[in-house]
Amino acid sequence: MIITTDNLTRKFGEHLAVDRLTLQIDEGEVFGFLGPNGAGKTTTVRMLTSLIAPTSGTATVLGYRVGRDDQNIRRHVGILTETPGLYDRLSAWRNLTIYGRLYEVKDVAGQVEKYLRLLGLWERRYDAVGTFSKGMRQKLAIARALLHEPRLLFLDEPTAALDPEAAKLVRGFIVELRKEGRTIFICTHNLDEADRLCDRIAVFKGQLRVVDTPAGLRQNLYGRQVVFHLAESPAPYLTRVEALPYVKRAQVVDNKLILALDQPEQRNPELIRLLVTAGASIQFVGELRHSLEDVYLQLVAAG
Amino acid sequence: MDKIKTIIEKEWAEVFKNRLVLFTVIFLPLFFTALSLIILVLVGSGDSTEATMDTADMPEQFARGVCQGIGGADCLQVFIGSQFMVMFMLLPVLIPVTIASYSIVGEKTTRSLEALLATPITTIQLLVGKGLAAAIPAVVATWLGFAIYMVGTALVSNSSVFGRLFGPLWLLAILVLGPLLAVLAVALAVMVSSRVSDPRVAEQLSAVVVIPIVLFMLGQTAGFIVLNTQIILLLVPIFVLIDAGLTYLAVKTFERENILTRWK
C-alpha cells in the first residue's frame, strides 16, 4: 500500500471537514477522489501531503507517517495544488529551477529541460509565466510537481478551468504518467475524466461514501442491464422474458426492451433466440451503460 | 543553506520586478543622501555671523560637547549633519518593511505559498530566506548611501567637520545598529504580513517601527537627547535581545496550517 489512512479526521473549530476516512491505495493505481465543493477533498490532500496535521486518526504515505515524518513525505510526493500558484514575474525556467532546488533535485537543469520539453513549454522557457495561458500554467505546475520524480502524485482538480483542448492534453499526460507506474491521487469534479482515468474511485462528502472501480460503482448501484432494440413495440414479449428466472427486472421504453440481469454474456444468446422465436425483429443488442454522473449524483444525494 | 539561498534568489528575482519595491530600495537612499549633502552645502556656504547666531539656538549640550575648538559655521554643519545621520537609521527599517510585506503577502495574493510549503523546506529556512532577502538590500543600500554621504561630506566640508561627523559613534550606529534595526523591521513585517491580505496594509502596519526613530530624531533636534557612543553601545545588546525575541515570535506566529487554511 502506498497510502493507508485509518480514521483520519480533521476539524476546523467545530466544523468536521474530514470524518474518519479509512482507505488503502495500491502502488501504481490511479485513484479518483470525487466529491462536491466543500466536501473535504483538498483538506484530505493537504493532510496526505503533510501540509496540515490531522485532528485524529493516522495516515501513512510511502511508508512515512503523517505528522511524524512530514519532511520525508514532502520530499517524496508531488503535488499539483488547486491553483497553480506560480511566480508570474519569473520565467518558466526560473520557476522550475527554484522548485528543483527546493526539492533537492540533483540535475536541476536536466530535469527542468526534460519536463519543459515533455509538456511543450521549451520554446517559451524564458517568458514570464504571467504571459502564459491557463493551460500552459497548468502544464508548468504539473512539471513542477514532477521535477523530483515522485512515485506518488497528488493532482487537485488538474483540468479545472481549462479549455477542452488543454484539458485533453493534461489528461493525456496523466495517462503517460500512469504508464510509468506512478501512483496518482486525483481530486476532480470531472466525472468523465475520473471514469476514463481512474482505476478506482472514492465518492467523498465529509465521509467516505463508497470506493470501487468505475464499473463496480455502476454495477452495485444499477446492476447490469441489456437493451434490445426492436423494429416494433416489445410489449408482447414482456411477460415472457419476465418469467425467466435470471431476469431481475424488465422494462419497455419505446421500442426498447431493457432487462436487468447478471452475466449477460451467457444469457444474451438464449434471450435473443427466445425473442426471435417469439417473432421479434431485433435490430441491435447492447449493454445499457449508466454514466458515472448518475452514480455520483445518487451517492452524493443519498447523504 | 542551499534552500535559504534559493529563497533569497527567488525573492530578489521577483520582488525587484515590483516597481514600488525597486523605487523604495533605490530612490530612498539616494534621496536621503542627496538631501543631506545639499543641506550640508547650503549650511556651509552661509556667512559666519549667521552661523554664530544659529549655533546659539543649538542644544547647549551639543554645542558644548561637539563644537569645542571649531567655528560656528563648522559647528552648524556638524549639527545639521548629525540630524541627517539619523535618517540613515530610517533606511534599514523602511526598506525591509516594504520588501518583506510584498514578499509574504505576495505569496498570499498569487496563492503560491501552498506549493512552496509542500516542498521539504522548514519554516525557519523559509523565513530566514525571506528575512535575509529583505534585510540585505536594506543594509547594503544604507551602507552605500552612507558611503556616498561620507565622500560627499569630505568634498563639501573641512576635515574637522568630517572628523566629528564620522567618528566611532555614527560608524557604530550605521554599521552595527543599522543591521539590527533591519532584522527588527523584518521580524515585525513577517508577523504583520502573516495576518493581513494586502501588501500595502502590511507595509503601513509594519512601518510603525519607524516611529521611535522619528521621535528620537525630533528629540535630538530639540536637544532632549544627544546621541553618543555610550548610548549606541548600550543600544546594541538591547536590540540584539529585541531582535532575538521578535524573530522567535515571527517564526512561532508563522503557522503553516493557519496560513494555508485561513488565507482566502
Summarize this entry quickly.
The complex is a heterodimer of chains A (303) and B (264). Chain A has helices at residues 41-48, 70-76, 92-102, 108-118, 134-146, 164-179, 191-197, 214-222, 238-242, 264-277, 292-302; strands spanning 3-12, 15-25, 30-34, 56-61, 64-65, 77-80, 152-156, 183-188, 200-205, 207-212, 225-230, 247-253, 256-261, 282-288.
Helix/strand order of chain A, N-terminal first: EEEHEEHEHHHEHEHEEHEHEEHEH
Helix content of chain B: over 70%
Q: Count the helices of chain B. How many? A: 13
Poorly predicted tracts of residues of chain A: none
Largest sheet of chain B: none
Strand arrangement, largest sheet of chain A? 6-7-8-3-9-10
Task: Give the total of beta strands of chain A.
Answer: 14
Walk me through what this model shows.
Helix content of chain A is 37%, strand content 29%. Chain A contains eleven helices and 14 strands. In chain A, strands 6-7-8-3-9-10 form a six-stranded mixed beta sheet, with helices on both faces. In chain A, strand 7 (152-156), helix 6 (164-179) and strand 8 form a beta-alpha-beta unit. The radius of gyration of chain A is 24 Å and the shape is elongated. The model of chain A has no long low-confidence stretch (mean pLDDT 90). Chain B has 264 residues and is an all-alpha fold. Chain B has 13 helices and no strands. The longest helix of chain B has 38 residues, at 72-109. Chain B is elongated, with a radius of gyration of 21 Å. At the A-B interface, helix 2 and helix 3 of A face helix 1, helix 6 and helix 13 of B.
